[in-house]
Amino acid sequence: MLDRTRLTALLARERATFEDRHPRSAAAYARADHLFGRVPMTWMNKSAAGFPIHLDRARGARVSDIDGHEYIDFCLGDTAAMAGHSPAPVVEAVTRRLAELGGASTMLPTEEAAAVGAELARRFGLPHWSFTLTATDANRWAIRLLRAVTGRPRILVNSYCYHGSVDESLIVVGPDGQARSREGNVGAPYDVTQTSRVAEFNDLEGLARELAHGDVAVVLMEPALTNIGIVLPEPGYLAGVRELTREHGTYLINDETHTFSAGPGGATAAWGLDPDVVTIGKAIGGGIPVGAYGLSAAVSAALSGRTDLDLVDMGGVGGTLAGNPLSLTATRATLEQVLTDAAFAGMIEVATDFATGTQKIIDEYGLPWSVNQLGARVEYRFVSPAPRTGGESAAHADADLEDYLHAYLANRGILLIPFHNMALMCPQTTTDDVARHHEAFADALGELIG
Ligand code: PMP
Q1: Where does the signal sequence lie (predicted)?
Q2: CA of 289 to the centre of ligand 1 (A)
Q3: How far from each other are the two terminal CA atoms of the chain, in whole angstroms?
Q4: Alpha carbon of 257 to ligand 1 centroid (Å)
Q5: What is the CATH number of the domain that holds 259?
Q6: Is ipTM over 0.95?
């Protein structure tokens, strides 16, 4: 059992240290009167210490703040910078497009777009690709297309999933086992239990029960949950999902936005999965906004055969900036030169070191915590054995403990992914960086446990 009084005192101390160390960030925050919530986006107020550090520069696995501190960045823009910050091939390609060729947004295709489509097809095994600016939009558009193809109204997601701000995905299994709107679903446009169904991850019985209603167009899922800690699939679960979706005439989307950390073709390639659609975003642009969705030959044929669908005019989703030359030149450079097969091998090796060392320290302190790894991504969770479902994982969140660890590490030059205890490796992350995390993590536990 943790000594909560000690935790409260240590958290207060770390917050005070954070405040002392960041006078310029604090002042910048205080001055930002014309930003709603004092930040460019309200979620940036998710800070272990009361206000966010303000960025000065970022390169590779390092970021520096305006107070002059440098950090080993295991956050990496929550995957948007999994290629490392400003990788040279991306900077070069983007600069050439902007400065030499011109035309960041033209409403015209480039030859590069086809190269990106071909590379994504090679990696994920789906032949036809379209682009958006965010993974959220890739999911929204893919859902619409599959509702159109099936004529079915609903989608199904896993409890405590995250697929971006997709209205239909904000649903959980409540304590009574019934579906309900997820807490924090601000300004919900409708009752989500009317548009969506939900099953716990790793629960094939629950999935079968929900699909039996016959009204689910598509199951939208991550092959491993990554937004409520990492919840890994049990043996046979993903094969069972594929079997059940086929049996019930329901399509399957693998959202690879985060599970891309599993390898060059995400979990889809690493685990030999066979989805109808893959959605992705963030990392593939090397820091430049882009999202993408890939369709199986059957889905694209079914869509192309439908003369009643407005896929060319206003259609329902899309966006003037989608598929713009800047995003696609960045994506091509990222895929061809940065997040290569060799880079993934190195990142996964470093992540394995992170996971093994973290578990060892946890064990040394006799804590009932667990560590999960998904390729280049590692998460520690305050429960052992590791949770099997999103609901179980959500039940073991501990906001103060999490804030303490985040603030403690930040004060010692280490950034984790906010919202949970997750660390991501980029091609420049080294085992020395990992060792520095381990040292600070062991110190944090030492002070807490004694
Ligand atoms: N899918 C998954 C699995 C995600 O984790 C996220 C964001 N964390 C998204 C989609 C949405 O990405 P974006 O915010 O870039 O639209």
Answers
A1: none
A2: 12
A3: 12
A4: 6
A5: 3.40.640.10
A6: yes
